TrEMBL record:
It comes from the Eukaryota. The lineage of its organism: Eukaryota, Viridiplantae, Streptophyta, Embryophyta, Tracheophyta. GO terms for biological process: plant-type cell wall organization. Pfam families: DPBB_1. SUPFAM superfamilies: Barwin-like endoglucanases (SSF50685). Its main location: secreted. InterPro entries: Expan_Lol_pI, Expansin, Expansin/allergen_DPBB_dom, RlpA-like_DPBB, RlpA-like_sf. It is found in: Secreted, Cell wall; Membrane. Belongs to the expansin family. Expansin A subfamily. Residues 9-117 form the Expansin-like EG45 domain. Causes loosening and extension of plant cell walls by disrupting non-covalent bonding between cellulose microfibrils and matrix glucans. No enzymatic activity has been found. GO terms for cellular component: extracellular region; membrane. It is a peripheral membrane protein. This is Expansin.
């Protein structure tokens, strides 16, 4: 929902994302990105891919930084290519609505995105149990579509 209250808890075990400092810029990652929990706490910069999406539903020149806080579970009863977006081998971010609305128009539904994972510039920050996405000076390896 609009206040992201339905995104609390989750597979990473962060509990109340507001009181833990993550706020509403969070996402559940598809199984391929979640990597058995190794992605918990990782930071991603995400933008709508205007080359693949209907431009009517993309906000141009805008990015949002999210923290991986949950798993978007696969549903093997649906096909990966046009049904369940969280099935392997699909990379997918099931973003909290406030984060998603930074890059897309709500009416657009699922939109293609480009993303970059933050690589901590200070190794010790990746070991802390705090929301480091707000603290890091990111190094980006390049956008992935």
């Amino acid at each position: 929902g609009a206040d992201a209250s339905d995104t609390m808890g989750g597979a990473c075990g962060y509990g109340n994302l507001y009181s833990a400092g993550y706020g509403t810029r969070t996402a559940a990652l598809s199984q391929v990105l979640f990597n058995d929990g190794a992605a918990c706490g990782q930071c991603y910069k995400i933008a709508c891919d205007r080359k693949l999406a209907d431009p009517m539903f993309c906000k141009p020149g805008v990015t949002v930084t999210i923290t991986a806080t949950n798993l978007c579970p696969p549903n093997y009863a649906l096909p990966s290519d046009n049904g369940d977006w969280c099935n392997p081998p699909m990379p997918h971010f099931d973003m909290a609505q406030p984060a998603w609305e930074k890059i897309g128009v709500y009416k657009g539904g699922i939109i293609p995105v480009m993303y970059q994972r933050y690589i901590p510039t200070h190794e010790y920050l990746s070991l802390l149990y705090v929301p480091v996405c707000k603290l890091l000076k990111p190094f980006f390896a390049g956008f992935h579509a």
